[in-house]
Design a protein that fits this description.
Elements: H1 2-21, H2 25-45, H3 49-74, H4 81-106
């Protein structure tokens, strides 16, 4: 019985990583639908039926489908994110260094 929980948890974590790492926005929404569906199933296994059906109806039925329709309606093209990420690496490193310096100063 605990293996089912672990299996659902792993599917949720891997699908969440798929949401974040997917280059195609439509694939990202499909991964989000998988996350919502498995969270709902996990809550059903934990006997929290009201919250499970609420997540299923509100998040999966309304919000995720709305995201999918908006992405398909606006015809969002797949962008090359690698160039954009490389462009922001110096900014991210400088912000991290500032945060580390502030944490050392306050200690």
């Amino acid at each position: 019985f605990n293996i089912v929980y672990v299996l659902f948890f792993l599917i949720i974590v891997l699908s969440s990583m798929g949401v974040l790492l997917s280059k195609n926005p439509i694939h990202s929404v499909f991964f989000l639908i998988i996350v919502f569906l498995h969270v709902s199933f996990l809550l059903l296994l934990l006997h929290v039926e009201f919250l499970a059906f609420l997540i299923f109806i509100v998040y999966l039925g309304a919000i995720a489908v709305l995201f999918l329709f908006v992405i398909m309606m606006f015809n969002i093209h797949i962008l090359e994110t690698r160039d954009n990420i490389i462009r922001y690496i110096p900014l991210v490193i400088s912000i991290l260094l500032i945060i580390i310096e502030i944490s050392y100063i306050t200690d």
